[in-house]
User: Fold Outer membrane protein with beta-barrel domain from Mesonia algae.
Amino acid sequence: MKKLVLTVAIAATSIFAANAQADSDLVQLGVKGGVNFANLTGDDIGDTESRTSFHAGFVAEVPYSERFSMQGEVMYSGQGFDINNSGQDNFLDNDDNIEYQLDYIQVPIMAKYYVVEGLSVLAGPQIGFKINEEIDYQPNSDAGDINIEDTSLPEAEDIEFSVVGGLEYKFDNGFFVQGRYIYGVSKLLKESDVFGDPSVHNSVIQAGVGFMF
Assistant:
């Protein structure tokens, strides 16, 4: 945990220190949040449904010209996937959805280009730090949590690398709306004796709103 906090702190400091290369009077800080539609993809994953969760965190935008900026974020992101168990007999003795919950602290660093005033495209790398991994067969209550360590399923890697791309529109009053897609490029799951070295990746669609102070 100490290494996680230190790494996030270094990443966040790097974002804000970048204003030494820009006009510090124009650096903007903000907050954001929204909905996640998360799933897993790859050759070694079967049919799954997206898990609906949320993301929330902090934003810093450092402008280098009228049209080009760098944007960094530190945020919580709920990911994983959903298994619809309706109609399947005796699976965990439950008829509700079953969630594989895989949650991260995500730190994206993105180039941001304003196509026209207010409208921008964003793209860049992202590093994610796993903070929770479990199966929940009662996702609408506080019960039903099963640790991955207590099953034969492979665990997710503690650190994940992704690529991010999206669109954002910022209003004159500081509010903004955005949508983006995140794809995990690094191996998601650890190698195991039962499942070998599976080819599985995170896949997340995000829609959110925020405010720049």
About this structure: The radius of gyration is 19 Å. The domain at 2-212 is CATH 2.40.160.20 (Porin).
